[in-house]
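This section describes the prediction task in plain terms. A model, or a person checking by hand, is given the sequence of a single protein chain and must write out its three-dimensional structure as a string of tokens. No templates, partner chains or ligands are provided. The sample shown here is typical of the held-out split.
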Amino acid sequence: MPNIVELRAIGALLNGKEHFYIPSYQRGYRWRRKQVEDLLGDLYSFARRPRVTSGSASSPYGDFYCLQPLIVKPIPVGDPRRDKALPPEIAADPGHNLWELVDGQQRLTSILLLLRTYLGILNDDIREDYEKEYYTIYYESRPDIIELLDDELASPNIDLLHARATRQVAAEWVSREHNGKGIELSKLYEGEEGWTRKKLVTEIVNLLMANTRTDVVKFIWYQLDSTANTDTVREFIRINNGKIPLLDSELVKALFLQRRHDPHGKLLDLATQRAMEWETMENRLNASDFWGFISPAGNNSEDRMGYLLETIYRVHLRQNQNTDDRTVQKIEAGDVFRFFYNAFEGKQGDALRTALDEKWGQIVDAFHAVEDWYESPLRFNYIGFLIQANVDAAEIYSAFRKAIDNTLTDCNGNEITFDRWLKNRIRMLFPDWIVTEVDAETPANTAGEPQRKPRIVVEYGSGTRIIRNIFKLLNIELLTSQYRSISETGQAKCIRDSGVFRFPFDLYKENGWDIEHIDSQTENPLKSNEDQARWIAGALLDTVDGLSADDRTSLENNVKMVEENRDAKPSWDFLREKINGELLSELNKGAWKTAVSLIQTEVGVENQNEHFIGNLTLLDEATNRSYKNALFCSKRKAVIEAVGAGRYILPATQYVFLKFFDRDTISASSRIKWSASDKEKHHDFIYNQLKDFLPHA
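The expected answer:
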């Protein structure tokens, strides 16, 4: 039978018939003070949580406190391990369950130690009131560890020392004024000394002993198929090697496929179909371009189905909160599983099948929506951009669902399409202040008034995040505008699936990107003679025509001389016929700084407004840092070589260095220079491409 997954209260394990077997391949008990105090603090916070209507999204707490999974496999009657772990009178009794504990022994042991400690403080009265009996834990490597806890004469070992330390921490925790979370216990309870401690202990024990639907502590119970030949050692290594947790998606998948939903096997074909559909969705999400556009930057999770399930849960939270806020409460581990589990809990027969169909339909619908977005280059690009800009995928999917129902509206209450909503949502990322009006460098109008034009005023430094978004959107819009143009000619159907008009979000996220200053910044100084000599040699190689092989060798030798002796003054006379006399004189004098300025002046470097957006672009780190403070012509050459070598250079960056934004007036001489006029033209190109998304002055 398939694996079983459910939520099981600790109280349900306290019936005297639940026993756990810890194989010797697992390490012994090792919890430390911080882990024990963190658990107690969480239990206390849950016990004292504000009571709200069940299921209310306004509370940060649910109806029960959920611990991380116990992964178990039943050990049947007749297995020799039962004779080792259980007394003879119950080893053959099928009414007593023995579970091989594959994962979770640290948590399970800690809970047992807390119960024994606190019931000891209460003189065990409450356990009799609840009619509870401890579950037992048998450690194959140390069978008597639990029994030896109270034996002060027992020889200590590392496991026993840790177990005793946990009991000591638990006793100290309820005896001090602060509970480790900054909460003053003395102010929470009024009464005589001693009563405060007993009250606190009672509240925690009530949580641990209860076996109710709410106000209780539950484990996620993951039971491996008893009939399958599951290698529990391999399963243990998989989970604990690198601390890979049992994922929410694995738990949710088990909910849909577990046999107990279909005890008579009537729905076996449906379960098989769902397993195949799950695998299809998982494989699709594993495709790098598909995952690249739908996942936020920095999300490298291998649990990609988990991301889809979390999006569905976030949609539910947004609807339940009935708010337009752009974010919902933080999702904790286990929240997604509980969302699906609660939809099925307590249901049987037709009611259960209906709930399963409904939730499965939500998963499939969400996946098909993402597939539809992927197939449309426009939606692919805009949705990918929004997600990279940290817009919640649940917000986008919620809008998509409303558009299907014809209930999607803008801020004025007017019904809009999903595509219009995407553009509006992108526009919201750019604050009004980033665009203003300035006098244009054009003739005055007929009334003698100066012409005005919009100006993007956000600059490098103070507005780096906004600038990154502007350039990412610029690259995306270059692709989408090309797609629109082709669509108008009727050819879009032919190239729709080619991917050429989809922005490569996966490739973008794999690389680091610098905001590059296009001009050569003299305010980022070349401080040493060696740096200045290297810069001069590189500049001369890129700007002087007719250099011979001997000239190039001489340039390299001059740089080496300065690197070996910073005060060296090599001869540059081999360039006498190729550079102006003033520059040659300064080079021969070793006046490197003056020579740098002369070269910059000669090639038209203009360092005004260096942080202006017209002087910026996005460039991959490797290319940018390879040429450092070079001239525009050198940078242009490096970018062209990078493209030729197969390195990914963003479209808008290629536009800059090839000056495609100024195709009407470009000349052979101006192509390799970067001037104040170029900055303005580049700015105007950016604004005109993005004017549908940027604020209007």
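For orientation: The first helix runs from residue 33 to 47.
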